[in-house]
Every structure is written in structure tokens, then in C-alpha cells.
Amino acid sequence: MIEDLISISTLMICTFLSTIVVGIFMLQVWLTDRRHAAAGYWCLSMWVGSVCTLLFALRAIGYPMLTVGFANMLATLGYALMWAGFRVFDRRRAYPLVVLAGPVLWSAAYLFVPQISADVNNRIILSSAIISAYSVWMGVDIWRGRRGERLPTRTLSAIFFLSHGIIYSLRIPMAIVSPAPLGNGTAHSAWFALFSLELFAHTILAAVAMLVLIKERGEALYRQASRTDALTGIANRGSFFEDTRVHLAARSEGTLMIFDLDRFKAINDTHGHVAGDTVLKRFSARISASLEEGMLFCRFGGEEFALFAPRHDIARAEHFAERLRQDVAALSILSEGREIGVSVSIGLADVATFGADFDRLHSAADGALYAAKEAGRNLVMRATPAATLSGFAERMRSPSASSTGIAAAR
Q: What CATH number is given to the structural domain containing 374?
């Protein structure tokens, strides 16, 4: 018989050892970086599960109030803490009442309802209902988290917890249709042995899922940091190049805009570099708030920024850039009680005129920006092929003078 081949006590001891090992790793993760708050909850759930499974393994020789009543309370608490960990992992609120609901419900039923404390099948029904509820809720939460963060293992983890909740709930009809007899302090039947084996496998896979999700979150944050400008929080030059080239390869329409804050060096010299940083952050936030869907915005470096509008022809892009220029001119930035005036010059170049080669597009937009600076600043200028060729020829004749002129103009 299956129940003779699968030793429940042995399974519990194996589960105890595996949860101890995972608990140690989770504790190390949490102690290394306290920002991993979910690891703290998961660490607690593993330690609670370790004590629980050890008590389950001692049922044949232990005191029922400890190995049955207290052990099952710990089992529900372990799942509740696991649920709280996934809530925190996805930056949702972990409600203390929900965490306590399962353990309190079990404890009250075991202590005050004779039909629960005296009948192993009634205990199976109650504990299965509680644990299945937590498992299904975890699966739903993990699945919902895909909208905001698409970690590779997230979908698999959601399916895994949902399926475990459904499978574990099948213990309820089995306990009703085919009640398990009591043997060596626990249920002794083929179906109970199979469900215990599934629980053991679930514990191992749940631990692996937690560790992998933490690893994937760390890798995602590292990738994001490598693509983000540290001061302004927007995309950096490298990620903008990469993303814009993807758009250019797929579309024949779009406009590149190059922004340069006017007289930014004077702002630093007059108000200090802290005030300059404030100007850069406020400018970035203002432009970011006005972006339309699909637009890419980055800090090129210093006071220069770039924006790619993939669905804008030159006329629409010019109208949009003019609105941005006016918004920037209306900014009110205070530094040590003094107001800092800000304006921006913008150069535009469109794909329809200059093609989908990024370097050519950038050169044309940068030439238009230079023309806006030369014309008096605080202007939006579109690039034209004739002006681009003329500017290129001028820079070729006198590169040092041209670069000096650009620096002075900006």
C-alpha cells in the first residue's frame, strides 16, 4: 500500500531539514540587505515551518496538544507569514489581521470545538481550508504583480501556488468521502500519504521560488540602475541610444529633440552647484510629466537632454517642443530665497527628412540646437538639410573655433 511505502514521519523530518537550510539562507539575505523585507517574512515562515514539521514527525510519541494542536497552528502561521512576504515583495500592505486570522481560527476550533480536537478528518478539513485559502491568495497576488514587474519566474510561481491551493483543497472532499483512520498519531491512508508527498514537494519548490524571485528582483534593480541617470532619475545616454535605435529600426516616422538649458554655467557660478542640481531635477521632472505614451527622454550629460517622439512628424513635434519650452520658462525655482530663471533651447530633426540613422539624426538636431543658441536662446528650431550641410562645412573649416563658439553660445 502507498501509505506503507511513504512514511509521513520521514517526510516531515526531510521537510524539517530543508526548511532549516532555506531559513538560514533567507536570514542571510535579510541581514545582508534589510531592504529585502520580504526575505524577513519568508525567513520567519521557514523557521516556523521547521518547528511545525518537527512536531508533526513526533506525533507517534508526542503530546497531542503540542504535536497536533500547536503544530497545526504553526503550519497555518507559516503560510500566513509566507503570504505576508509576497505582499511585501510586491509593495502591498500585509494586513496583521489576515496574518493572525488562520492561526487564531485553528487554535479556537481545536481548543473549543470537540469535533475538531477529537476527529482527525475534521482537523484535516479545517487545516486544508485555511492553508488552501492562503495559497490561492498568494498565487493571485503573485499573478497580479506581473502588471508592474515582469520577473521571469513570477508567472511560474503564481501557477505553482494556485495549483497547490487547489490540490490541497482536495483533501477536504477526500476526508468526507473516504475518512482516513488514525494510525501512529496521524491519518493513515493512501490519499493522505500522497497529499503529504505533494506538501513536501511544495515546500521545496516554494523555497526555491522565493530565493529565485529575490535574485531576479536584485538583477532587475541593477539593470535599471545601469540605465538610469543618478541625479534626475530619468534614462541615461546609453539606454536612450539603445531604445531609440530599436524604434528607428521599426518605424519610418519620428522626431529627435535635443534640449540644452540656457546659461547653465552662470547658474552654477552664481547660485552654486546644489542649486544647479535642483534646476536639472526640476527641469527633468517637468518634461517627464508632459511626455506622451511611447516617448523616450534622457539626460545626455551636463545640462543637455534628448527626447525622441516616435509618432510625431516635424510639425507636430515642433508644436509639442514649443509647449515644453513655455512650460520650462514658467518654472519657479527658489534657491536660498532667490528665484532662478530658467529657459531652454531645443533643436529638432525628423526621420522623414534625415532618415533613420541615429548619428545623422542627432547631428542634425544638434545643429538646430546650435542655431537656436546663436539666434538668442529660449527658442525651438527645426533642422533643414541646407542648414545642416552649411553648419557641417563651417565646423570642418574651423573645428576649434566652432567648438569654442558652441560653448560660449550655450
A: 3.30.70.270
